[in-house]
Amino acid sequence: MSARKSPSSPALTSKALFHGVDHLVVRVNAARPLFEVFSATLGLPVTWPLEQASFATFGWIGLGNANLEIWADAKNADLPEHCPLPLIHGIALAPQRMKSAIAALEEKGVPMKPPRVYRSRNDEGTLQTNFTNVVLPGVSGPTCEVFLCAWDRDAAIVPWQAGTSTTRRRETERAALEAVNGGLLGVTGLRRITIATPDHPTLAGEWHKIRGSYKQPTQLVPDVDVDVVVGEQHVVSSIDLEVRDLAAARDFLADKGLLAERTDDTVMLSPEATGGLAIRLVAPTPAEDKPAAKPAAKPGAKKSAKKY
Question: Which InterPro entries does the UniProt record give (predicted)?
């Protein structure tokens, strides 16, 4: 008889369940102004060109290890009445394998809604699965939704090449950021998501089921932390972007009039530039705290970034 794995066993940690953060959904009243701040003003790569549909205007900005989905909904019917925008409304986690992730989270006691499949017709007129979402209600609320998001390899709506796996797409997105040297700020990736809540013990406990640790902040995935703090509302209160050189990033923002606050170890972008989003820049994580790096490329190997 084999012993049942404990929820904190290595095989069931969030690090083993997820590729990482797929994207953060940033709800705005108008998509283009914020999209252009990130793409044109800050020089970050566009991983999903701005698209206008009957239901929303949206596009993705690449952060290397995640994406910012700038989303201007036509109705905002899913948000509370008079909800102020902009708002980081969604945290999409990319599972290594959806079925395995669901099974592991069930064993951990994580509440989940039934999988919801989103389909549309491809160029041949065939109904094609685009992606499947599984909402995690224990860590979600009206203004903060956390969900698993698994893209189908043959999704009809995506800007990347058909047949592209999530692993390959994420490699391409990292290469896109590296190709522009992290943009004008030298961004190396999303580092932390800070979530405020009036009921800290409950929300922290629900995140513990997923992460397997009560430490605050702690790693959700190897390169992104989640920090649960006390606040008036359950909402993503800020995100941290790691930059290669914090002093250089600070000088750039100051020169452009985009600097709001600064300390010895963080820099805050001006709310006028971000529309009110709290976005901090932080210095690189000490090497001893980072996950093990992948083996270096062979000498002479060329690095190429696929364009979307």
Answer: Glyas_Bleomycin-R_OHBP_Dase (IPR029068)
